[in-house]
Amino acid sequence: MTKEERHLWYDFLKPLPQTVHRQKVIGKYVVDFYCASAKLVIELDGSQHYTDEGVETDIERDLYLQTQGIRVLRFSNLDVNRNFEGVCTEIMKHIMS
């Protein structure tokens, strides 16, 4: 896990009463975090996600997950570092909806 993934995992996701899995295999993809009860994937994106190839791969992955009835939330590592509380609030809105 990246530094940002560890921060989100240990300081927010792991202690939640809802079960959240990390590095979960869904189809041919490994997602960063998955909450089955909310059918929610949480992805933290580093710089490789902002290349042309990374963007195309993410679009393909997100479309596949959406066909499985799974919502995808994407946050940049910068979001986690600069607005951790806001990221957590956004995740909770989707877990609770």
Describe the 3D structure:
- The protein has a single domain, classed as Endonuclease, Chain A (3-Layer(aba) Sandwich), CATH 3.40.960.10.
- It is built from four helices and four strands.
- A four-stranded mixed β-sheet has the order 1-2-3-4, sandwiched between helices.
- Helix 2 links the parallel strand 3 and strand 4.
- It is globular and about 30 Å long.
Mean pLDDT value? 94
Question: Would you list the SSEs in sequence order as H and E?
Answer: HEEEHEHH
Strand order of the largest sheet: 1-2-3-4
CATH superfamily: VSR Endonuclease
Number of strands: 4
Number of helices: 4
Shape, per Cα inertia axes: globular
Question: Key features?
Answer:
about 100 residues, 4 helices, alpha+beta
Layout of strands and helices, then pairs:
Layout: H1 3-13, E1 21-26, E2 29-35, E3 40-45, H2 52-67, E4 71-76, H3 77-82, H4 84-96
Parallel strand pairs: 3-4
Antiparallel strand pairs: 1-2, 2-3
Question: Could you give a quick summary of the protein structure above?
Answer:
The chain is α+β, with helices and mostly antiparallel strands.
